[in-house]
Amino acid sequence: MKTKHDDWRELSRRALDHLAPKVDYADVRFVARRTQTVEVKNGAVERATASAESGFGVRVLKDGAWGFASSSTAELEEVLAVADRALSIAGASARVPGRRAVLAPAEPVEATWSSPYKKDPFEVKIEDKLDLLLEAEKRVRAGGEGRVAVAQAGTACRREEKSFASTEGAYIEQEILETGAGLAAYAVGPGQLERRTYPNGDRELSGCYGWEAVEEADLPGNAERVGREAAQLLEAKPCPVGRKDVILDSTQMVLQLHESCGHPSELDRVFGSEAGYAGTSFLTPDKRGNLRYGSAEVTIVADATVPHGLGTFAYDDEGVPGQRTVLVDKGLFVNYLTSRETAERLGERSNGAMRADGWNRPPIIRMTNINLEPGDWSLEEMIKDTKDGILMEVNKSWSIDDKRLNFQFGTEIGWEIKDGSLGDMVKSPTYTGLTPEFWGSCDAVGDKKEWKLWGTPNCGKGEPQQIAHVGHGSAPARFRKVRVGVGR
Amino acid sequence: MMTKERILEALDTCLDLSRADQAEVVVLAQDTSLTRYATNYIHQNTAESGAQVFVRVVLDKRVGVATGNTLDRPSLERTVREAEAIARVSPELADFVSLPDKEQAGEPAGKAVFAAATAGFSPEARADAVGRVTALAGRHGLEAAGAFTTGVFSLAVANSLGVRRYAEGTRAMLTAIVMGASGSGYASSLAADADAVKVEETAETAVRKCLDAQNPVAAEPGDYEVVLEPAAVADLVEFLGRLGLGALAYQEGRSFMTGRLGQRITGERFTLWDDGQDPAGLPLPFDFEGVARRKVTLIEEGVARGVVYDSYTAGREPGKRSTGHALPPTVSFGPMPLNLFVKPGQADLKDMVREVKRGLLVTRFHYTNPLHPVLTTLTGMTRDGTFLIDHGKVKGPVRNLRFTDSILGALEGIESVSRETTLVDSWGLGAVRAPALHLRKFTFTGTTQF
After folding, report:
1. Which ipTM was obtained for this model?
2. Who among A89, A96, A127 is closest to B131 (CB)?
């Protein structure tokens, strides 16, 4: 019996045979996604949804100009029509003079790959998920002792099956399973709304795992603390204003890496492709190998090969193998996230960072897992070594300028550090800085034991907007004399 | 584009297949094309065609939702059965009353605008429009980036209580960011009719702003008088909508409107309403439950007047009706205003600038996000043209600044409101029609290097 994958392979071949004589290059991607989300709030089901979608996209390069077309109807007639449409759009692109795309070489690969997992989350009964979530959510409210207005618990899973075929002879099939769960408590007081979450913000998809990730997260075991801390935040001190040493927990390092290193390292952004929307980058090509991005403690890698990350895959959506690339080496900015087109402009090969959000979007450069390499400090040592600082945990607000220099971030919770000891709880702490100056002030990074890989399933980029799932691994890190308490 | 007949047939099929007490089907079909350009050439050019099907079923008070994107009968049946399976195992939603019936859904007074020119707009036409922008930028030695989007959508809603709606509409938008060595300029044009998109005006405004923005000087952070152009105003207003103008946030105490209806929350010169029927916006005459969108006055001369409802949140308050602001059933953050209007004033922009002793003229904001939702404290950067005003005259460009301020607090001090308004895209789904505002005080907390 023919499978969905047999159909994809055959339809891809027909489309590419049709296009090959007329184009410089073409590729066809089929994608099928299945998602299930179960969320409860204040003792009731807030959202229980099952989603399925599938379709295909055809990307054509003709005379150095791009065209892309897509459809949800995977039938031969439609596939050929969409291929012609992509070709015609490429022709329209060529009407405006200017740069023409050339692709860096890539070996065409035939391969299949699936992300590993232990327990299929789609096989877990919804009623069992609801039982777990309702119990955890009840404990959040109990922990809040009447001050938590909204308590939530949720879990989500997504399975993406996709194929990639190109006129160069590549054919790759991949299956990626993502799972996760989380809790949130919102405590409300006069003119106040304080949030506390577990394990890290409102991000239910934490990595390429099965249901085992939810079991290991132990929502019920963490629920009362989440409710209690949300309530305590209402009474907590406001964040002090001034310059302090700041220790960012790995949960907040996720956002710091994402916004101030991951995005500015995207080479399409550097070359201006995002200028019309999210902006450009201060990491212009003249800075490569020259700019002191951070202190010697700071080594940042883009690693699509680390197990279980939301940015982990075997091949990107141009068929280039996922790989590990050092972006910042002991403080020196050394490399970008690249595609075949952008790498060619530097005379290099792609390092495999092109991904598309589903069947109806063309691939663009996306982060993989952008990780800060561990140092040799324990968190305890870091705190002990800090005279006047704040420990901040779990991102709550974020904003950065359109070259990725001036940022202002806020977290759910913080604790003062006085003379080497943790002190009072601080509500909604914020800090601000300029990217190289901030990373230059990093003088301590946590060790391997403190290092953790987190998922960011909500990275927006591109027009039409594409949401990427990316990962960030880090241990806690300390930054000296940072401006805190802005916007109290 | 998927035909009306096929979409309506899908609605009927799902309702026929449902074994639930109540069922609702929503089909949102879209054909969208987008030509994206940067450094004066087209670097991405896309077309997509697809439809989403949302099925919501109710068994007693148990609710289940499933979605799909294929409209053949086996796929639709799978979606319906999946929604039913979820509903069967879900606990009862105690405060769920019912899906809306025909009487509650009402009759929309307006209709979506469908422009044949947009539906037929070719990739060549988009490329040629983009070419006019890049050519003008190129003639000035500048580089342009942006996108030209054209799209057709069909929204259809039916439920087992007799609600049945269908609307077709179009949307077209050109954005232009023009960049020079040390500054940039921005302009955009949004309309239902692609022929009404102002290509030359957009290009000229962005180029002029860019030329004016070269060689910016540093401005110290602090409190400034500001004139915010419509794009900047729309950004702030959009956040007000998201943070607190929906009934769910209001009911849960997360909204700045909670407990303050009837009280003054901004200066008297500020009036804000939502109207999904007004052709001066981008009308969408009914919501994702098929309920006719009602005009809702949100803030009137500074006084908090109301929030928007869907059928679920309306059912939680005695005497309330849905105002027709439901989002798709997969969205959990409750009803939202998507067609916001800020009441214009009598001033023109030049006069507004003339009134400023020492302040800033802001083209737009970038990466705005909330810090304290209940206090409406937001932070964000200025972008694409920020200028110092000195004794009523635009003196020159300044480097971008970070603002951190309470929006309601800033709206307390409105000195004047422009007569002219601009239609600004909102989340790619709705639109805000906003004037320029002259605010007495706006707090900037940081600067950047450009």
Report:
1. 0.94
2. A96
